[in-house]
Request: fold
Amino acid sequence: MVLSELKLKRGLTSRLAKVIDDKIKIFPNPVIDRLIIEGEGAITYSYVVYNQVGNQVASGIITGKGKIDLEKLEFGFYILRLVETSNASERIHKILKL
Reply:
């Protein structure tokens, strides 16, 4: 299933106008404690993690390679939204937290 829209809290909708192609790797999935993001070079990404009801549970900025700490989150599915800050291209990724 491809996510073309992400419905957020209060009816906000984020459409995938541009998609970050294979410039970035996101692993492991399923994740136990830390999600690793590996981008190309010094590209900067902002990220937001949403729970199943659309509440923001984590956010931050990653340049190049970084980790997102998900250790305190409960078991379940989450949505990761990555936005490349230089050109506003974005990627939506479903994550399973164990």
